[in-house]
Specification:
Structural class: mainly alpha
Order of helices and strands: HHHHHHH
Largest sheet: none
Shape: globular
Number of domains: 1
């Protein structure tokens, strides 16, 4: 958890909505396969949550990375679901999901 990222970078958001709640569960699922965030490391471990990162680290890039690393089918599905959910959120919703996941306030 990058507490400083949450506070200084994103303004300490604590948004609670269906997207955030769903993302918390999907992030948890990703960490079941890899404690460093697997193919989503840049986003969920390094807190690169701005829309631009989802353009650069695109779904296609994620799939290529997963194939290169020979991830299990289950891990691939979990990461793609998480990526899609996060991509459909605002930056503050993403930061809220990571905050709640890290501090167990969900």
């Amino acid at each position: 958890m990058c507490f400083e990222c949450w506070v200084l970078g994103y303004g300490s958001p604590k948004i609670r909505n269906e997207k955030v709640e769903a993302a918390i569960g999907l992030i948890e699922k990703v960490y079941e396969f890899n404690l460093a965030g697997g193919g989503l490391h840049v986003m969920i471990d390094d807190w690169n949550l701005e829309d631009g990162h989802f353009d650069v680290e695109s779904r296609e890039h994620l799939i290529a990375f997963q194939k290169h690393r020979k991830f299990s089918d289950e891990q691939v599905v979990a990461e793609l679901k998480c990526f899609d959910a996060l991509a459909d959120m605002t930056t503050k919703e993403r930061a809220s999901a990571l905050y709640f996941r890290s501090y167990g306030e969900h």
